[in-house]
Design a protein that fits this description.
single chain, 659 residues, alpha/beta, L-fuculose-1-phosphate Aldolase, Rossmann fold, 7-stranded parallel β-sheet, 18 strands
């Protein structure tokens, strides 16, 4: 590990002590081997005037939940040092009282709640204090001979603190250690099974002490590993159907749809293929803080996929009952990640963000576990009882509750929308994404990739008339997200108008291939996964022409009529599995690429009316926009239409011929 300190960059942040604190904090936060997702904390002690003009010393400490990688001056909470030191001198202090008193000591009551380790920072006399959960430090401590490793690597240059619950108890223990130490000879402080502190009156020196100590740990571990290699078995392919079943049972136990993301890259595959992976992966997390995100252990997936999760839930329930008091309510018992021996690792989350956080934590966990096993022969995490105390700690639970927002209607669901590079398809994809779904857009148009990126979705170029390509894409989606819950089959073309006796046969065949048969192929390969989906729904996009056809459009109208019949049959076949299938019939949606200004002008002129009159040529005299269709489709895919199937729904402002 190398120091990233750059004097020019430091000056750009500013000359103030807090500006320097921000700069070095961001350096720490930018290195995931030191800090992951809101972990770690930093502080600086500053003297300044209070509201009444008196000079006081304040501890500017990272606000709880803030991210060191992106931290700003506003993310530091200033607490009165006198109050913090007074708290550290108390014999006992409850967690709730500690938080309340820290908040009461704040210079700005509107700031974030101070880090739960604010008092720890206060009792360390240096101006700048840095705290991280460095992987290599945890590798040294999370094994049977952890204390021996620390002594061998650092000698007497560090203070060693046995594991103590974060907060007041840790502050008391640190204060005792500090008072007994000659800090002139100390480079840092190691918290067993927790992390590392460094400190100095100069921000650069405190930061570089962190880099120095962590680098020593890395070199020691690498030396111990040498050329050792763990025996690894061969990676096996995973069945999309099994992954879909896995996602379904995890969602059921969580009480909410989740994405199931399969990770079988080189690092994850090697870990999953270790001969002893079942044993080493279930001993506990890298650091206690992670238990709140990942739970204490992953699930182990065996031949019976559903039974494996049921077994995990049973074990979690026993774990809760063993350590819980009567005042606690069990969290949902579903796993946040799973090891699938010889196949890979699977992450479970309601959102892509949650998946990303869990994935980052697990990546560092499996790397460190593997290295620790090779270097020291065994990985040893904290006991289950101590990890339970963190998982159900009122302060950690408060963090999650403070970040909790109302779920969007499709959160955790996976939606596939065809023909979504533009027009109605794009509007459907956008509406579903805004309502929380993880969206995959399919289209022959190469623009699909960029278009989907605009709405934080994934775009795939595919010819939907090619059955093998459809099968491959659908299975790929399931491997990426664990299943499919919402299918919007929208892809279509409007074939050139021609009377039946004058029509080129290719016109008819092309319309049938794209507007009907491609939908049938898509359903054929999607239905097995929709059956395993969460409140699954299919919405087909038809046309007003089904109920009110016009002359010269037989190839288009008949294909859409066939699509309507396909919808009705699908509804009959899938109802027993809880899968709904409905069709929507839009009309006169003019804000699409099909309707150029010239085309609109010609059509309006043909009727002898203005363009605006032409666009509102329906009973309600209202314009139908693609966003209106998208909103309707998203609503139809949710609980509002949860008991509706086999229906045809018009969105046309009222058409007298249809009515």
């Amino acid at each position: 590990m190398k120091s990233l300190w750059n004097d020019k960059d430091a000056k750009k942040h500013g000359k103030s002590a807090l500006a320097k604190r921000v700069y070095s904090s961001q350096l720490l936060g930018s290195n995931p081997d030191l800090v992951l997702h809101g972990g770690g904390n930093t502080s600086v002690k500053i003297k300044k005037k209070d509201f009444f003009g008196s000079y006081k010393e304040y501890l500017y400490v990272k606000g709880s939940g803030c991210d060191l990688a992106t931290i700003t001056e506003n993310d530091f909470s200033a607490c009165d040092m006198h109050d913090l030191i007074s708290l550290s001198e108390m014999e006992t202090l409850s967690d709730t009282d500690m938080v309340n008193q820290c908040r009461a000591s704040m210079l700005d009551p509107n700031s974030s709640t101070p880090s739960i380790e604010a008092i720890v920072h206060a009792v360390i006399p240096s101006k700048y204090v840095d705290h991280t959960h460095a992987d290599s430090i945890l590798g040294l401590t999370n094994c049977p001979n952890g204390r021996k490793n620390i002594s061998e690597v650092f000698g007497d240059s560090v203070i060693v603190v046995p594991y103590v619950m974060p907060g007041f108890d840790l502050a008391r223990e640190v204060k005792k250690k500090i008072q007994k130490s000659n800090l002139d000879k100390i480079e840092g402080m190691i918290l067993m099974n927790h992390g590392i502190f460094t400190f100095d009156d100069d921000p650069r020196l405190s930061y570089e002490k962190m880099i120095l100590l962590v680098s020593r740990a890395e070199r020691f571990i690498n030396k111990k590993i040498g050329k050792k290699k763990a025996p690894i078995s061969k990676l096996q392919n995973i069945s999309p159907n099994e992954l879909s079943q896995l996602r379904k049972v995890v969602s059921d136990w969580r009480g909410h749809p989740v994405i199931a993301s399969l990770d079988n890259d080189n690092e994850s595959s090697q870990f999953a293929c270790l001969k002893n992976v079942k044993a080493i992966s279930t001993r506990g997390p890298l650091t206690p803080d992670h238990v709140i995100r990942t739970k204490r252990t992953p699930a182990i997936i065996e031949s019976n996929v559903i039974g494996s999760i049921d077994k995990y839930v049973e074990k979690y329930t026993k774990y809760f009952n063993q350590y819980a008091s009567d005042s606690l309510t069990m969290l949902d018992p579903s796993p946040r990640w799973a090891v699938w021996p010889d196949k890979g690792i699977v992450y479970f989350g309601k959102t892509s963000k949650e998946i990303s956080i869990i994935k980052d934590i697990v990546k560092h966990t499996i790397k460190t576990i593997h290295q620790t096993e090779l270097a020291f022969g065994s990985w040893k995490a904290l006991s289950a009882s101590k990890l339970f105390d963190i998982e159900y700690w009122e302060l950690e639970q408060a963090k999650l509750k403070s970040n909790k927002t109302n779920s969007l209607p499709h959160e955790g669901k996976v939606a596939v929308v065809t023909g979504s590079a533009a027009g109605i398809g794009f509007a459907c994809a956008e509406a579903l994404s805004q309502d929380g779904a993880t969206v995959v857009g399919l289209d022959l148009n190469p623009d699909i990739v960029n278009q989907m990126q605009k709405i934080c979705a994934n775009g795939i170029i595919v010819n939907l008339t090619d059955e093998e390509k459809i099968k491959s894409v659908i299975e790929g989606i399931v491997k990426s997200y664990g299943g499919i819950d919402i299918l919007v089959s929208n892809a279509g073309i409007f074939t050139a108008g021609a009377y039946i006796d004058q029509m080129d046969q290719s016109n008819w065949e092309k319309s049938m291939a794209v507007n009907l048969t491609s939908h049938q192929k898509l359903l054929k390969h999607s239905i097995p996964f929709l059956k395993e989906g969460i409140n699954s729904s299919i919405t087909l996009v038809g046309s007003r022409n089904v109920m009110a056809p016009g002359a010269g459009a037989s190839s288009y109208s008949c294909a859409k009529a066939g699509l309507t019949q396909l919808c009705r049959v699908a509804a009959l076949e899938l109802a027993q599995y809880g899968v709904r299938c409905n069709i929507i019939h839009p009309d006169a949606v003019f804000d699409t690429k099909l309707w150029t200004p010239e085309a609109l002008s010609r059509s309006a002129e043909r009727y002898g009316i203005t363009i605006e009159e032409y666009k509102t040529r329906n009973l309600m005299k209202t314009e139908i926009k693609s966003a209106d269709v998208g909103s309707m489709v998203s609503t139809m895919s949710g609980n509002v239409f949860g008991k509706t199937t086999g229906s045809q729904i018009s969105i046309d402002g009222g058409n007298d011929r249809v009515i």
